Amino acid sequence: MRSVTRRAPLEVVAVSRTETAAPHSRWRALAVLCAGQLMVILDGTVVNVALPAVQRDLGFSPSALAWVVNIYLVPFGGLLLLSGRLGDLVGRKRVFVAGLALFTAASLLCGLAQDPATLLASRFVQGVGGAVTSAGTLGMVVTLFPEARERAKAIGVYSFVQSAGGSLGLLAGGVLTQALSWHWIFVINVPIGAVAVLAAGRVLAPERGSGLGRGADAAGALLVTSALMLGVYTIVGTAAHGWASAHTLGLGAAALALLLGFVVRQARAAHPLLPLRVFRSRVVAGAMGIQALMVAGMFSFQFLCVLYVQKVLGYDEIRTGLGLSPVSVAIGALSLGLAPSLIARFGPRTVLLPGLALIAAGLAVLGRVPADGSYAADVLPALLPLGIGFGLAMPSLATLAMSGATPEDSGIASGMFNTMQQIGSAFGLAVLSTLATSHTEALTGDGAPPASALTSGYQLAFRVGAGLVTVALVLAATLLRNAAAPRAASREAESVSVPEVKAPRQPAR
C-alpha cells in the first residue's frame, strides 16, 4: 500500500487493520453496521404510525403523547457528539456493541410497558442506546473502505439505510400494529439486536482507540451534552409553549450559552473533545449545515404526508405504509446503484445539486395537495422526485462531510454528521408541525370545513419545507464550489489510507 502524507497516530493505525482485510470481510462488517443503524432509524419512524394505538391502550393525553417521540429525540441528539468522540478514544467497535446492547434491552422494556411512565423512561434509554450505536457508524464505514470507488459504494449502502429506513418504518409500524399490537414494534428489535450484537463481536475488527488521555475532556463533554440535549428539548417543546414564550426563549438562551462555552473550551483545551480543525474545511462545515436544512425540509414529508394520507384521504396504517413505499424504492435504487457511480465519476457536489432540486420540487408538489385529492394524482407525483432526490443527495453529503476526516477524527466527524441530522429533524418537526397546526386552527376558527383547514395547514408546511431545501441548494451551489473533483478526491482518499504498519500481536480471540 502507498505511504501516507498525513499519518494517523500509531496506536490507532496499529489496531485498525480493517483496511487490509479481505473484501468479503469488509462487506460483512458493513452489513452488521447497517443492521444496527437500520434498527435505530426504523425506531425513529415506526412509532409514528402506532401512536393512536399507544394512546388508546395506555391512556396518554394528547399533549403527553408527543413525548413518546420527543423523549427519544432528546438523548439521541444530545449524546451523538460525545459518543462519536468516545469511539475515537476507546475504540469504535466497543462503543457500537455497547450501544446496540443497550438499545436492544431498552426495546424489550418498551414492548413490555403497561403504563405511560414505564414507556417514556424506556424510550429515553432507547435514545441513549441509539446515539451510542449510531455516532461512529459512518466513521467505521469510511475506515473500512479507504479506496475512493469502494467507499462511494459503501456510503451509498449506508445512505440507503439512513434515508429509506424512515419510510420502511412507516410500513413496518403499520403492519405490526394492525396485525399484532403496538408492543411488537419494539419487541421485534430484540432478536434482531441480539443477532447483531453477536455478529458484531465476530465480524468487526478490534480497535484500541487513541486512549482517553488524548481527549478525555470531561468539562467539554458536560457542556456540549447539556447544550445539545437542552437545545433539542427546547425545540420539541415549542409545540406546547410557542416560539416567543419565556420558556422557549429562556431555555434557548441557556442552550446557546452552554454551546458558546463549549466552543471556548475546545479552543483552549489541550485535548479537546471536538478538535475545531474538523471545521476548517468550508466543504465539510458547509455539508453538515446543508444536511440539517435538507433534513428539516424533508421531515415535513415523513411526518405530515402521513397525516394527510390518513386524515384527509382516509388510509389505514398498512395502506399508508404501502402508499409511501415508492420513496423507499427510489432511494434504494439510487443509493445502492446509480449514486455511487455518479459520485465517483462526477464528484459529490455535482450529484448533490440536482438531488436537492428534486427534493424541493417534490415538496412543492405536495404544497398543492387539495382537500378532495387522490393518491395517484396528487401524492404519487411528489414521491418519485423526493425519493430520487434524497437517494442522490444523502450519499453525496455523507461523502463531503467525511472528506476531511482523518482516521483519528472519523468518529467525531461521524457523530457531528448524525447530530446535524437529528437537530434538523427536531427543528423541522417543531417548526413545520407548529405552522400546520396554527394555520389549521386559525382557519377552523373562521368557519372553514375541517378537511379544508387540515389540508391548508399541510400545504403551508410543505411549502416552507420546500423553501428550506431551496436555501440548502443555494448554499450548496456557493459554499461547495471548491469541492474536490473525482480524481482529486481519489488522491485524497489515498493520501489518508493507513500504511502497512506492523501491528502488535493481538491475543487470539
Q: Terminal Cα separation, in Å? A: 27 Å
- Helical residue percent? over 70%
Q: Quaternary arrangement of the chains shown?
A: single chain
As a percent range, the share of strand residues is: under 5%
Q: Name the CATH superfamily classification of the largest domain.
A: MFS general substrate transporter like domains
Please work out how many helical segments DSSP would assign.
Answer: 21
The structural class is mainly alpha
CATH topology of the largest domain: Growth Hormone, Chain: A
Give the overall shape, derived from the CA principal axes. globular
Poorly predicted residue ranges: 1-21, 485-509
Tell me what the structure shows.
With 509 residues, the chain is mainly α. The protein folds into 2 domains: 16-216 and 271-495, MFS general substrate transporter like domains (Growth Hormone, Chain: A); 217-270. Helix content is 78%, strand content 0%. The protein has 21 helices and no strands. Helix 8 (148-179) runs antiparallel to helix 15 (317-323), helix 8 packs across helix 18 (375-401) and helix 16 runs antiparallel to helix 17 (348-366). It is globular. The two termini are 27 Å apart. The model is unreliable at 1-21 and 485-509 (pLDDT under 50).
Give a short summary of the structure.
The chain has helices at residues 10-15, 23-58, 62-65, 67-90, 92-112, 116-134, 137-144, 148-179, 184-187, 189-203, 218-236, 238-241, 246-268, 282-312, 317-323, 325-346, 348-366, 375-401, 410-445, 450-479, 486-495. By secondary structure, the protein is mostly helical.
